[in-house]
Amino acid sequence: MTPADGTTDAPTDEPAGTAAATAAARAGGTRPVEDGFTRLEPQTGTGLTLLAGQTLTVLDPTGGQVSDLFCLAADDHGEWLSSGRSIDYGNTVYFTAGHTLWSNRSRPMLTITQDSCGRHDFLLTPCSQQTFDLLYPQLGGAPHPSCFENLCRALAPLGVAPDQIGTTLNVFMNVWTEPSGELHIDPPTSVAGDRFAVRAEMDLHVGVTACSAEKSNGGVCKPIDYAVS
Ligand SMILES: [Zn+2]
């Protein structure tokens, strides 16, 4: 995901009480790691093999934290998760339970089976060093952790080259558009314990991150938990 702007407007579509819960989560508590889950420390990522029929669950243990997700066919990295085909065939830029995520070859890669948050998009690429260089010139080009770098590092042992990593599904990211098409990125609406699960429809190599961009994560980068079952 890319922090396209620095707006800090409060989300306006939250159910009553959610804002308070989000604030409480940001103020301190991070949930302990649940049985079967592994914790990604802030601004890190991992790579894994997900066999057809297995489920990957991404859990936000603190609330307000984005996770980038990308995958490729395990037996042929020329087949990869296509934001464009998923948006086209699903007729949506937001994805939730019941939606299929498609490959560039128009085959189902993942089916979303659980979503307790309700806000995930496929619009923006993973944050990268260049993202920070271009959008935050005040950082002076200083090295900054990024989802892209973390995905490259995590997927390299599985034989994935950097140029094979495309647009990620932005789990828990809170992106919305003006009628003009202008994009806004607000703090995620996810609260501690929110989870998002996908079932593999083919054998996959998958990369998952705890996003590194402060402005996409309410100002503080936090951990992400995941589990394969
Ligand atoms: Zn990121």
The radius of gyration is 16 Å
The main β sheet shows up as: 6 strands, antiparallel
Given helix and strand content, the structural type is alpha+beta
- Fraction of residues in β-strands: 25-35%
Given the C-alpha coordinates, what overall shape results?
A: globular
**Contiguous helical run count:** 4
How many domains make up the coordinates? 1
The poorly predicted ranges are 1-25
Distance between the termini: 26 Å
Give the names of the bound compounds.
zinc ion
Q: Please list the strands of the largest sheet in the order they lie side by side.
A: 1-13-3-11-7-6
- Number of beta strands: 13
| SSE ordering | HEEEEEHEEHHEEEEEE
Question: What is the average of the pLDDT values?
Answer: 90
Question: Level of helix content?
Answer: 10-25%
Report what the structure shows:
With 229 residues, this protein is of the alpha+beta class. The chain has 4 helices and 13 strands. It has helices at residues 18-27, 83-90, 129-135, 147-155; strands at residues 38-40, 45-50, 55-60, 67-73, 76-80, 100-102, 108-115, 169-171, 174-177, 183-186, 194-200, 204-209, 224-228. The strands form 3 sheets. A 6-stranded antiparallel sheet has the order 1-13-3-11-7-6. A hairpin with a 5-residue loop joins strand 9 (174-177) and strand 10. The longest helix is centred in the N-terminal third of the chain and has 10 residues, at 18-27. The structure holds zinc ion (ZN). Zinc ion is lined by residues 1, 68, 126-127, 147, 211-213.
